[in-house]
Design goal:
Length: 261
């Protein structure tokens, strides 16, 4: 089974890249299921129902979130009822939505998708992601050996630690949030595919998706600035392609994909 995980879709440029590039990638690599992080899809923060449905129509099967998933207030009801969208499982109890889903792949195999948020430099309001991961795996393991975890976190050390913690218990641990792809994709010792950060799907002529001139002025003057999504220049879709032995849930390979628009 071939799984494609698409990194943080950022604003309109990122959505345009998904619409134009994802159908071809699905055909070229015979992809059975696509998981994509959408927490920056609406103007750089959050996601709306209209945008999520657009991404589903473009070929995304499951959407994951992160620390900005609730940024669009009108989307709370949609997040609660849309079963193909997951938010970090380690939000406090009662938060809208779900932290994991079970989705049937085109190949006929059920895939568990888990979303977690890191705590280092991410704010004090997240529960323990390691305990949340245990709870999700305990719920999903009787249903499927195929589990992919999107760990939306700031520091490489926390992501690497989670990779080792889940090695052999999940199919893949992919990192998101920093928007810059890392070159450390590998198979861990017990068969879990790992990468610290998939990278952003969006405008790279920017500062992690935002207009670079505005960001630079703010950094140089220390005056508050209203950030804006960068223009659609140097737009790229970043993803990882993971080949999986479906019966066991063990990953057989992982490789980075970067396609420019």
């Amino acid at each position: 089974m071939n799984l494609l995980f698409v990194g943080d879709i950022f604003g309109n440029p990122g959505r345009g890249a998904v619409r134009k590039l994802l159908p071809g990638l699905r055909r070229e690599h015979e992809v059975d299921i696509v998981v994509a992080n959408c927490e920056n899809a609406a103007g750089g923060k959050g996601v709306t129902e209209k945008i999520a449905r657009d991404m589903f129509s473009a070929g995304c099967d499951v959407l994951t979130g992160g620390n900005h998933i609730y940024a669009q207030r009108e989307s709370m009801d949609f997040i609660e009822r849309e079963e193909r969208l997951v938010r970090p499982m380690n939000y406090p109890p009662g938060a809208p939505g779900r932290g994991y889903v079970l989705h049937q792949s085109a190949a006929g195999f059920p895939l568990g998708v888990v979303n977690l948020c890191g705590r280092a430099f991410m704010g004090p309001h997240y529960d323990d992601p390691f305990r949340a991961a245990d709870d999700a795996i305990e719920a999903l393991r009787p249903l499927t050996p195929l589990i992919v975890v999107d760990f939306h976190a700031e520091t490489t050390s926390e992501k690497i630690a989670m990779g080792w913690y889940l090695d052999g218990r999940v199919t893949a641990l992919v990192g998101t949030h920093t928007h810059i792809p890392t070159a450390d994709e590998r198979l861990l010792h017990q068969g879990t595919a790992y990468i610290t950060d998939v990278g952003m799907t969006g405008p790279y002529d920017s500062v992690i998706g935002m207009d670079k001139d505005i960001v630079l002025e703010g950094l140089r003057t220390q005056r508050p600035k209203r950030y804006e999504v960068a223009a659609a220049r140097e737009v790229a879709l970043c993803a990882v392609l993971i080949t999986v032995e479906a019966e066991s849930g063990r990953a057989e390979s992982i490789r980075r994909i970067r396609v420019e628009l």
